[in-house]
Design a protein that fits this description.
heterodimer; A: about 425 residues; alpha+beta; MutS, DNA mismatch repair protein, domain I; Dna Ligase, domain 1; five-stranded mixed sheet; 16 strands; about 25% strand; B: about 100 residues; mainly beta; six-stranded antiparallel beta barrel
């Protein structure tokens, strides 16, 4: 596991709306709102223009239109947003090998040791900005530059708070010496807590992180439990939460030796199908989509054959991987009979399914996209382990005075 | 087709959640938990240091099901050293202590 204590938070607020503006630039100047993926009668994300006209996330569609008649309402497209975010992560991985996605539109870049490569922190930031611009240039309408905000600090929390203080298109850097003073004046809204806990903090009159850390740690712990202890220590700058990246897997190869050399293209195409299926089942591939796939063959008389495909949209779907290989097989077949055929995955991109499953921004995964992702994950687990290890929590006697009788687990079958 | 409402629940597919685990508890002078030492497979977990109880929240008692297997328990809602929030109870029929999530 790759870790970095120095972190840069790359934050693109209202990421889903920015993706829509990338597709339809005319939306940028109009009041726009995305419908909630969970409940299409309610508004989920609101553009600044619409917000100025009084529309707030969570209001009903009729209320929103009442407040702002020219409001443009859009159905959310979570798969598109996830794909865009995966491309952004891919661009950032050119700068640092340690990338950790937090939610749609927010990712952390580990920058430990990068000064040896790029120079002082300002240069590292400039590289990250270039990566974001490269990503932005690959979207449908590259003229719409996303209003990113960057924060530099020790630990993800400090970097995140710094990013929330940055102006659009700019960065805020928090030096180690000034970290405590910086955090003290920040609002408690920066803490990674659920809305209920935030409300409790406000009801207790705690507005800033300084207010929180002025209380004894034990008092916060007894009021909010383990989470209280964690946030108190984060707010006091006593702990740094490192950026944790995942190592990109080594190339995955599946190959087959033919007992007698084969020249029949139908057999070769079927073999490619089987080899792609086998390579996809490799445990190392879990959580990654394939970006580059290669088929190579050893021919009779020692010759060889190679086709190399880079997918525009990385995929873990067998058909999407085999289709271009088969097309190239038809266009440029081997010049002799094949003795050995191999399929190799040589480059990977973070998996969309993984993002949808594990992104902490629960709202970002629409019900349909999430169920699809869950079905794929359940299928993959069943195939690998021969049984499901996923369970659903059901209520049995939720009001029972005996805690063990309130809930039970049942096999999960989406 | 909508399943009839009286379709029995597949109880054989249910798995217990939050089942209480046996625990060793050190008591203070008032008979309240002062420290806990988790047990594994019914035995004390090696030489692991006990977790000190930092605060006790609610205390309540459950006496129930006297008509079949009587249940008589005294519950303590406690915060452990390090911030862990757990429920401890003493089975008053066997004098054994158990731990579970709140």
């Amino acid at each position: 596991m790759l870790q970095s204590h120095l972190a840069v938070c790359v934050w693109i607020p209202l990421f889903a709306l920015r993706c829509e503006e990338g597709r339809r630039p005319e939306l940028a100047s109009r009041p726009t709102a995305l419908l909630s993926p969970e409940d299409t009668r309610r508004v989920w994300m609101v553009s600044p223009v619409a917000r100025r006209m009084g529309v707030r996330p969570g209001v009903t569609v009729s209320q929103a239109i009442g407040l702002c008649p020219p409001l443009v309402l859009l159905e959310s497209d979570p798969v598109w947003y996830d794909e865009q975010f995966a491309h952004l992560l891919l661009a950032l991985s050119d700068v640092s090998p340690v990338i950790e996605p937090a939610e749609l539109g927010r990712a952390y870049v580990g920058v430990d040791g990068l000064e040896g490569l790029y120079g002082p922190p300002e240069r590292v930031i400039a590289e990250i900005v270039r990566a974001v611009d490269r990503w932005s240039a690959t979207t449908d309408h590259p003229t719409t530059r996303p209003p990113y905000r960057l924060g530099w600090g020790r630990g993800k929390f400090t970097a995140w708070v710094a990013a929330t203080r940055a102006k659009p298109g700019e960065f805020v850097m928090v030096a180690d010496q000034g970290r405590h003073e910086f955090l003290t004046s920040q609002p408690v809204a920066a803490l990674p807590l659920d809305p209920d806990t935030h409300r409790r903090l406000y009801q207790l009159g705690l507005k800033t992180l300084g207010n929180l850390t002025a209380l004894p740690e034990a008092a916060v712990t007894s009021q909010f439990g383990r989470l209280g202890r964690l946030v108190w220590r984060l707010a006091a700058g006593l702990i740094t939460d490192p950026v944790t990246g995942r190592e990109v897997p080594e190339p995955i190869t599946a190959e087959l030796d033919f007992p007698t050399p084969i020249a029949d293209r139908v057999i070769l195409a079927n073999t490619i199908d089987k080899l792609v299926e086998r390579a996809l089942q490799s445990p190392r591939r879990t959580g990654w989509r394939v970006h580059t796939v290669r088929a190579r063959a050893v021919l009779e008389q020692g010759a060889s054959w190679l086709i190399d495909i880079t997918l525009k949209d990385p995929s873990a779907d067998q058909h999407r991987l085999t289709a271009p290989l088969k097309m190239r097989l038809e266009q440029a077949p081997p010049t002799g009979a094949v003795e050995r055929l191999a399929v190799e995955f040589t480059a990977f991109a973070p998996g969309t399914t993984e993002l949808q499953l594990f992104a902490r921004d629960a709202e970002s995964a629409a019900r349909a996209g999430r169920r699809k992702a869950l079905r794929a994950a359940v299928h993959e687990i069943k195939t690998r382990l021969k049984r499901s290890t996923l369970y659903h929590v059901i209520e049995v006697h939720p009001w029972s005075r005996l805690p063990e009788r309130r809930y039970a687990l049942i096999d999960y079958e989406p | 087709m909508v399943a009839p409402p009286r379709t029995p629940l597949r109880v054989d597919r249910l798995r217990a959640l939050n089942a209480p685990q046996p625990v060793e508890v050190e008591l203070d002078a008032q008979g309240r938990p002062a420290a806990v030492r988790p047990r594994q497979n019914g035995r004390t977990a090696g030489t692991a240091a006990p977790h000190r109880v930092e605060a006790i929240g609610e205390i309540w008692r459950v006496d129930d099901e006297w008509w079949r297997q009587p249940i008589s328990r005294r519950y303590f809602d406690v915060v452990l050293e390090g911030g862990g929030h757990v429920v401890l109870f003493e089975d008053l029929t066997t004098n054994q202590w158990w731990i579970q999530k709140p």
